[in-house]
Each structure stands twice: as structure tokens, then as C-alpha cells.
Amino acid sequence: MSTARFQASACALSATVNHLRLRPNAVVSFTNHFGLRPLRKKPLRVSMSSAPPSQPFEVAVKASVTTPNRIGDCPFCQRVLLTLEEKHLPYDPKLVDLANKPEWFLKVNPDGKVPVIKFDEKWVPDSDVITQTLEEKYPSPPLVTPPEKATVGSKIFSTFIGFLKSKDPNDGTQQALLSELSSFNDYLKENGPFINGNEISAADLSLGPKLYHLEIVLGHYKKWTVPESLTSLKSYMKAIFSRESFVKTSAQPQDVIEGWRPKVEG
Length: 266
Hints:
This protein has twelve helices and four strands, in the order αααβαβαββααααααα. The protein is α+β, with helices and mostly antiparallel strands.
């Protein structure tokens, strides 16, 4: 395997005939080892492009329930929009009233879930699939998070929901959330300012909207805030929330509050 990596490295410096004979998995081994995307196209992969599409991507996202013609409170929709923004790709958001889904939306997406994006005349759901496809088709600027870092902070959202829905102050849900936030704070202190170091990556674009919801919803329904002692986490949230891409794609606080009301009151 080390020989394969050496061959891949050599070919990255000089385009030789030997490069064409390399096994595809040798290239993958090389890129995964260094956490970088290849500079050249790889065989049997989605075709990549350095130029933006000729037409904006059509993206169906949740509409605001409080203000006409505004983006709603879905963190998974914002994740997709953030990816498009950070990659400087044009897009046309289609705002969908999830309480009264239009016929055209149900026709192209019978499951009725958002987000959904149109790729090559086909509507594709699921924020994981959408963001991965965008990375493969438009690798520059790169947003790849190395596999060993991709799950950092991934338990925060579920523990947030557990605490939000809890009616018992002694059931341990608050402590579970604090534990996850503290672990993430410690990670950022050693490895930050972002999950992948100095540059923002896909993991931040996934976690950022969830932390935005956490801050607003727990402040409103629980009168609870992230402890000031978690300084690295506080700085991280400030850095994410203040990015131009985030400001442009974030929901209004009132939409976030209303969006979570059924889980709190239900």
C-alpha cells in the first residue's frame, strides 16, 4: 500500500503514462491519507467542473411561517444553501409551505421532505447526498472534512433535542448536553478554530445551523444559554453565525421558535 501511495504522489508531480495504469483505489488511498481532494479528475467518478453551472440550481427549501418570501427554519436546508454559498454556486430557492405543500413539489418529491435540489433534470433529496454531490461536481473551493474529523460534535443535536423535550429537570438530559458541548469545546481549543483547523469545512456547515437553533430555542423555552466558560465554543458559534453565507441563509429567530413549538408543547 505504501508503494501505491508513492506512485500516486509521483504521478501528481508529473503526468506520465504510468499514471494511467494506477489502480483507482491507490488514488483513493492517497487522498484519504492526506485528507485532500485530488487536483485531477479521477476515473469512474462524477464529472467535476471548476466553472459554475450555466443556470442556477433549483433548490426546494422550507418557507418561513412568519414572513412571506423568507427562508424557513430547517437546519438541513440551510446546510445545503451554505454549501452553495461557500462554493459560490448560483441557486434559485423554491420556498415550500410544508403545511400546504404545492402540487408541483409533491409531484417531483412524493415524500414531501426538504431540502431537494435539481441535478441534471432530476430532483435529488437528502442534505447528505446533496452536499456530497456538490463537493464531487464542484471541488473548488474544497469543503471536505477528513473522515477522522467528520463526526466531531455529531451528538450535540440529539442531546439538544432530548433536553428541549424534557419535563424532568433531574433526568440527566441537561448534563448530557453539557457534556457534549464541553467535549466539543475541548476539541476546538486544541484543534480549532474550526473542526478542520483554520478553514471551514462541510462538518461546520452541518453543525452550525444546529447550534443556531440550539441557542435560540433553549434561550426561549428553557431560559438556558451556552455557559460562558466554554470560550472556544462561544468563539466558534460567533465565527460561524457572522459569516456572510450564514447571515444570508439563516432563518429568523421567530421562525426557529415557532418551528420547534410542537416538540416542546407536544
